[in-house]
């Protein structure tokens, strides 16, 4: 069944949290609290970070913590979405067919699971415990056509562009950008850098982009925060910065301002792929 046309204007939110490793109940309670706040702020969609339900450094506990896409944690997330009356995207570890996946689940405001996306681009030691996803996912929703990504996927412009080619006008990214002191102090791998990455992906594709990151310490690393919502111009409309909580902004799919911007920013039409081979 085809979803109804997206409303002219919607409010979307990104939630930022410091998941407790292995403490699923506590993490779900935090997700629920953020969802209530975002709903009260008028959000129709809330995006939460990568592996928000379990924490990120759980490779030695995947057999215990990873669940099927229709398991008890997913059921609880669906209930949170329904109770809050918003679409909800949450990162969690999925067990499927004898493999583990770093995944993003999207639920509708009625609590129904609309999609499960498995992270396609695995970073470093992730390859030792997770299997890579093998298909891009774009979902038709009442908010718009949503393309799903997880963390490292956002580094690859060709992959985000493929989601746009498949019809996405909103791309969401549940992530956990981490760093140590050397990365931050020597190379400047910081929150403002990953926020700029989100803005760049939005700009080069002419889309809305919502990136939800973790914040705080975990296993000797620091999650960079700066969850944000970027406009098709690359402008950052809202950001959490550091700390836990959420930020929200209005997006729209038509109107004179958007048409005027896209009439100027003809980046996709102006590409010359024959020169890029």
UniProtKB/TrEMBL annotation:
It comes from the Bacteria. It holds the Pfam family CN_hydrolase. Gene3D superfamilies: Carbon-nitrogen hydrolase. GO terms for molecular function: hydrolase activity. PROSITE patterns: CN_HYDROLASE, UPF0012. Residues 10-253 form the CN hydrolase domain. The keyword Hydrolase applies. Coiled coil: none annotated. InterPro entries: C-N_Hydrolase (IPR003010), C-N_Hydrolase_sf (IPR036526), UPF0012_CS (IPR001110). Keywords: Hydrolase. Belongs to the carbon-nitrogen hydrolase superfamily. NIT1/NIT2 family. This is Carbon-nitrogen hydrolase family protein. The lineage of its organism: Bacteria, Pseudomonadati, Pseudomonadota, Alphaproteobacteria, Rhodospirillales.
